[in-house]
Amino acid sequence: MHIVVTLKQVYDPNTSPALLQVGADEISLEVRSGMSPVLNGYDANAIEEAIKIKEAIPGTTITAISVGDDQAITHIRRALAMGADAGVHIKGPTGLDCDSFVIAEVLAAAIRKLGLVDLVLCGKAASDTDAGQTHLILAEKLGIASVSPIKALEQVSAESLIAQRMGEGQTQRVKARLPLLLGISNEINKPRAPALKGVMMAKKVQVPTWSIEELGVIGAAPSATLKKLFITPAANVATTMISQGSDEANGRALAERLFDEGVL
Known about the structure:
The chain is α/β, with parallel strands linked by helices. The protein has two domains: 210 residues, 3-Layer(aba) Sandwich (Rossmann fold); 30 residues. Helices cover 28% and strands 27% of the residues. The chain has six helices and 13 strands. The longest helix is centred in the N-terminal third of the chain and has 16 residues. 32% of the residues are buried.
């Protein structure tokens, strides 16, 4: 079985808004020096799940693919250190410049170049835009079915798999034939930390870089255009402790405070 895992580098979602600033063009972020992009969290879950399948099914190979600048290679090497077999870097847009339609077009061309692929695992969304579109467009361009978001895999074979798909207030148990694309959610697992031996081996692996022109994807038009970006200031939260000695007194004091604030 050949599994492809797609990766994206994003701004650290744990970064405080106070450390971010909108650029003069009003469509880009200015990040303070020393703040490097990180691997999208859902993509790390996808890598982990691919490795679990590899451990369960002998002969399985994993290829990690990422579109972006040269820093994307760092995240590919993390996948290799965790247990992926190969990686491909595609020189292209990164971060907020990634249009879902264009990235899906590029990834589809790269996957077709790899040859036979049985299973494609993608994060269900990227934490920078949370659009959740690229993997679904990718499945359509590859001409294969997709199931997303996935919270658990119960059974995987060379022909099919059984997955738990998250729905509105419910979980659907789905059986699907391969080839297939899955959108992975973070409920599915906890990504392992790469072992030192894996990290050292990953540094020696040659990660090829393909260009968009080399893949034959030229002039793909974005499906959406970012017009303006803004950061919502953090809300100021003030806490007042009410302690009047009894439940009755506390309730009366709370009601009076809410009245004074215009809530009641």
